[in-house]
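We store amino acids, tokens; thus:
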Amino acid sequence: MKRILTMALTLARFAVLGLGFGAGIAAHAAEVGGVKLEDTMAVGGQTLVLNGAGVRTKVVFKIYVASLYLPQKAPDLQAVLAKGPRRIQLNLLRTLSADQLADALVDGLNETNTPEQIAAVKAQVDQLVSIMKAFKEVKEKDVVTLDFVDAATKIGWNGEAKGSIAGDAFNQALTRIWLADKPVQADLKKAMLGG
């Protein structure tokens, strides 16, 4: 009898541990478009929280999951731009050539910024294109990060630093791709802003 009671207690402990472990996983990751996203991450020596994330689609194709990380949650573009460091992360859902990715970002910049805003950051946009084209190809499941740290946009690819572009104005122009009044995709903006 004592042996059966000991086994029952041991199984109960495993069950409790298992439930706790499962709950821990659910509390520490969100899933969007089949991509598991961390609830927090360290950028620029600071812990950032997931503000929101959504799927970028073009016609019927799912292109990437875009997620926004900030020091504290923010409901709109002005609040996002007031916080730093910050990260926009792109988890690719399909393979793209570097040209396709660079062209999509440039198109997004042109669609969501005024001609004056674009003219003011033309050299930085050229630098972005150069960095992106050096990727050659971004594959499904690759991760591109755009971190704003120390007044520069630091570009990463699968955890490797690929380049840094100075200037707050450039990062604001880049952020407007997803979060402007008329962004590249309205439901994606809403999702990234936690809506």
In short: The mean pLDDT is 87. The first strand starts at residue 29 and ends at 32.
